[in-house]
From TrEMBL:
The protein's name: DNA (cytosine-5-)-methyltransferase
Keywords: DNA-binding, Methyltransferase, Nucleus, Repeat, S-adenosyl-L-methionine, Transferase
Organism, scientific name: Aegilops tauschii subsp. strangulata
EC numbers on record: 2.1.1.37
GO function term, MF aspect, one: DNA (cytosine-5-)-methyltransferase activity
Amino acid sequence: KKARLMEESKKKRNRYGGRAQGNQPSLDGSHDEPMPLPNPMVGFNLPGYLQPSVTRILPKQDTGPPFFYYENVAQAPKGVWATISRFLYDIQPEFVDSKHLCATARKRGYIHNLPIENRDHTRGLGITERYKSLGNTFQVDTVAYHLSVLKVMFPNGVNVLSLFTGIGGGEVALHRLGIHMKAVVSVEIGKANKRIFRGWWDQTQTGTLIEIDDVKSLTDDRIVSFVSRFGGFDLVIGGSPCNNLAGCNRYNRDGLEGEQSALFYHYFRILNAVKSAMARITFQAM
DNA sequence: TGTAGCATGAAAACTCAT
DNA sequence: ATGAGTTTTCATGCTACA
């Protein structure tokens, strides 16, 4: 019985791996390398957490500018995070369960005389669509914790390249941190998400917002022109689609080569285009 | 045409034992 | 270490109904 189970799981793994791998062989041929998730899932450090915090020294060429911030589901199919890490300069992922940064179960009473209509910036969506958009966005408390280091580094504000903006969780995090956004180039394909984000921006921000529909249409040439127009980006931020990675997908969990999740490679492409365009600018200035 | 409501499994981590 | 049972998971497709 044991042998049969082993055999079956092996077969399944091969079938799954073949599909996930697609016709795109991994660069070093090993897509099954281990990337264990930490337990507890607290990332490199947490505020007030009694545990040795990780010290990390990145190679000079990987420290930026620009800073970048990439996100996806922790529990992706095997090998996916290893691949993502390999493309993003072998930087180790910081896995965090947001339950360590926000309390979802807190019963409180509130007495106030504020208006109670039009409270949150996701108004105007149906409940199904709203739930989906909220479920897909950054967890603002967690992202704000990670981005909080930027506050003292950029007292005059930041230029942001925002990929897969969604309803703007990253921008909301920056805003809550009191970090001014001088300019945001936002790439988002969802009409409802764009409407929500634009509405929030117009009501809370004074900086420049440029909207682009599709990462595929953000060509290297356009990136060069944006970089020269804004003098470079301080932050490239985004979480690429999880559709083909997420555990609850029963139909197309095809891994990083899946139809939507393969857009990760555009994040990689665009980040490198920004880096090289910015390197050229500083070289010209010298 | 669009959406609320509901049904649909499996990979992989996790727990707990040996 | 290994294994069996349990738990968790940024989803998708169909149907009824407005």
